[in-house]
Amino acid sequence: MSDPMTTAPNNVLVRCWQALWIDGDTHTALGCLHNPYVRHGVDGAATMSPEAYVAHVTTITSHLRGTSLDVDHLHEVGNMLYARFTMRGVNITTGGTIAIAWIGHYRLVDGKLAESWTMRQSDFAW
After folding, report:
1. What CATH number is attached to the domain comprising 30?
2. pLDDT for 47-60, tens place per residue?
3. How many whole angstroms separate alpha carbon 83 and alpha carbon 106?
4. Which residues lie below 8 Å from residue 103, measured CB to CB, with a gap of 6+?
5. Are the beta carbons of 85 and 8 closer than 8 angstroms?
6. pLDDT tens-digit readout, 16-29
7. 3-state SS of the chain: helix, strand, coil percent to 5?
C-alpha cells in the first residue's frame, strides 16, 4: 500500500492533525473545519464551532508535544473520509513517550471536516 502521507499530503484531515498535533498551528486547523463541527465519540455527540473544537483539542493535549503523525490508511469516497492513524509524542509532564491510535470516519462539507465518528486508544500503535 502506498504511503498516505506522500500520496495525499494536502488531505484536509492530514492538514488538520498535522497543524494541531505537530505544528501547534491553530489558524490552519481552523481553516480545515466546517462551522458547525459535529463530533461523535465515547462521550456521545457534540456540536461546536471550529474555535471551540480547536480549544478543546489544545486543552486536552496541553501536556503533550507531538513528534509524528503516521497515517496508516486514508480513503475518500464522495463526501466521506475514512482514516486510521497513529499520533506519537512526548508527555512533557512525565517525559514519557506516548502513542495514540485513531480510527475515524469523517463527513466533508465544502472540502472541510464537518462531522466525525472516532475511536482512539492511548498507549497503542497500529
Report:
1. 3.10.450.50
2. 999 999 999 999 98
3. 8
4. 83, 84, 118, 119, 120
5. no
6. 999 998 999 999 99
7. 25, 50, 25
